[in-house]
């Protein structure tokens, strides 16, 4: 694989659980405050314990001022394309352009089929033509770890920098158990800026959008 030279972006991964709603609002405010680029919201319509992704995204956009919001990722088999396109355009217009649309082919096919969605097979896409986002789950701690995406901030910076310049990944959305606010703050303040600087240094040139 290769580095496509895109600007590196960072986000926070939101679990749209009914029980975590208050925490979700705090997480969105934290992302807005600390300079993260994105908030990604899981879209699993068949999950009974989750809020509707699109309803929640509208609320998060209304409660923030700078950060962009996207479905991580939209469940295509259960979202009619024309209806989803209109919802995306509406959220983009009402938020001043802060909505992004990320698409997913689906993964939990039994649950999708149970809700009347089409069960599909994987396809292919040219990775150089799209923004490539990676959900990064783990924890940042004071002690090193041999486990990927765990350990110190310095380890995380090294790992994400390598992914950006060696595999073409350009967008990293951080997730942790329980949507831990302290972990998200550490990622936003200690990891994201350092990765941007390291990627710029490795590339030696300005990134493209």
Automatic annotation (TrEMBL):
Domain Luciferase-like: 19-123
Gene Ontology biological process terms in this record: alkanesulfonate catabolic process
GO molecular function, one term: alkanesulfonate monooxygenase activity
Keywords, alphabetical: Flavoprotein, FMN, Monooxygenase, Oxidoreductase
InterPro entries associated with the record: Luciferase-like_dom (IPR011251), Luciferase-like_sf (IPR036661), SsuD_RutA_monooxygenase (IPR050172)
Protein name: Coenzyme F420-dependent N(5),N(10)-methylenetetrahydromethanopterin reductase
């Amino acid at each position: 694989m290769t580095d496509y030279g895109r600007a590196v972006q960072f986000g926070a991964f939101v679990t749209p659980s009914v029980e975590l709603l208050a925490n979700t609002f705090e997480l969105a405010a934290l992302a807005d405050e600390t300079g993260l680029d994105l908030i990604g919201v899981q879209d699993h319509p068949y999950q009974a314990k989750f809020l509707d992704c699109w309803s929640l995204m509208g609320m998060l956009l209304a409660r923030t001022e700078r950060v962009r919001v996207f479905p991580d990722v939209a469940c295509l088999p259960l979202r009619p394309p024309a209806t989803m396109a209109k919802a995306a355009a509406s959220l983009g217009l009402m938020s001043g352009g802060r909505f992004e649309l990320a698409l997913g082919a689906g993964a939990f096919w039994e649950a999708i089929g149970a809700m009347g969605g089409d069960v599909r097979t994987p396809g292919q896409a040219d990775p150089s033509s799209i923004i490539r986002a990676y959900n990064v789950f783990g924890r940042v701690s004071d002690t090193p770890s041999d486990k990927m995406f765990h350990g110190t901030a310095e380890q995380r910076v090294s790992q994400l920098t390598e992914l950006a310049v060696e595999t073409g990944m350009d967008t990293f959305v951080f997730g942790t158990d329980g949507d831990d606010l302290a972990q998200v703050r550490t990622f936003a303040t200690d990891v994201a800026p350092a990765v941007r600087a390291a990627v710029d240094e490795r590339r030696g040139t300005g990134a493209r959008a």
